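REVIEWER CHECKLIST
Item 1: Sequence provided? yes
Item 2: Single chain? yes
Item 3: Sequence as submitted:
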Amino acid sequence: MNEQIRAREVRLVGPEGEQVGIVPLERALQLAADVDLDLVEVAPMARPPVCKLMDFGKFKYESALKAREARRNQQQTVIKEMKLRPKIDPHDYETKKGHVVRFLKAGDKVKVTIMFRGREQSRPELGYRLLRRLESEITDLGYVEAAPKQDGRNMIMVLAPHRAVKASAVAATASRGGPRDRAAEESAAPAGGATPVVGETAAAGETGPTADTSGQ
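Item 4: Structure as written out by the authors:
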């Protein structure tokens, strides 16, 4: 018998969550076989271990769906960085502003850095005016979360997307549901450390009264 199932008795929980009581492991396996369900260890550290009668394949599928939904609803904060020069060329400015707009539309924050060189360090107002110009041109998408601040040879300002813009970006990402999410579903591990106890209710190709620790 596997080390995780040393106990000869388990506390059995029915498929609807009802408490069956403490029964011998062999009896629990037989009860699972009688109702064509799996015996799944849900609390291995309890004394005696707690096992539940369930459809383990359905359990894994529903756990993967819940994990995917949680990832969809999770709002991760990403900070992008855009570097500018005080005397930036107009065309370069428009290009970099376009990147800032794209980042904000994607729901990301943007750290805008003005880099001063040589004598430019004596003219901080040039960087300040450039940052204020950028702020005024993206007001429909974001706002200044951290006001312009001198940091050595650089001047830094942090922009953040408006709540509605970020919510729209999160919803758009969730609606796509790309292949990466589907792959994660298929390989998702069962929640709560649940382990199927292999015996008379074993899946195809599994034999013997041991505990399968693979999580499959």
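Item 5: Key structural point noted by reviewer: The chain has six helices and nine strands.
Item 6: Recommendation: ____
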